[in-house]
Design brief:
This protein is of the alpha+beta class. It has helices at 46-51, 56-68, 74-86, 88-92, 100-103, and strands spanning 8-12, 17-23, 29-36, 40-43. It has 5 helices and 4 strands; from the N terminus they run ββββααααα.
């Protein structure tokens, strides 16, 4: 069994941030944990994971991009930024990182839909 069970494990910002996502029964992403290199790791409870569910349209688009290996696609960053901004309150208390709120700002535009 993996030490960090999840469906997708992403290394972001030159591998200084690790985000683990799982898919729920409807195929929507939810945040399992996020780790900021040197600043802390936040493991979400099952209830918090249920609260941190991405909408189905963006989940489908993100899954298609990740499964295709198109990791440099700008849409991935836009979807993840919007997602993390929406649920930043779930991870803030466990992360000892003063600049956290500056890193996850409100997205400037909505990602394209399928």
């Amino acid at each position: 069994m993996p030490t960090r069970p999840c469906d997708y494990s992403l290394g972001l910002q030159e591998d200084s941030v690790f985000m683990d996502l799982s898919l729920d029964q409807q195929g929507c992403f939810c945040l399992v944990r996020i780790s900021f290199d040197g600043y802390g790791c936040c493991n979400l409870s099952e209830i918090e994971q249920e609260k941190s569910t991405m909408n189905s349209t963006e989940s489908s688009l993100l899954k298609a991009l990740l499964d295709s290996g198109d990791y440099d696609n700008q849409c991935i960053g836009e979807i993840l930024s919007k997602f993390l901004y929406e649920f930043k309150d779930l991870v803030w208390e466990d992360v000892d990182f003063p600049g956290f709120t500056r890193h996850f700002r409100a997205p400037e535009k909505t990602p394209p839909h399928i």
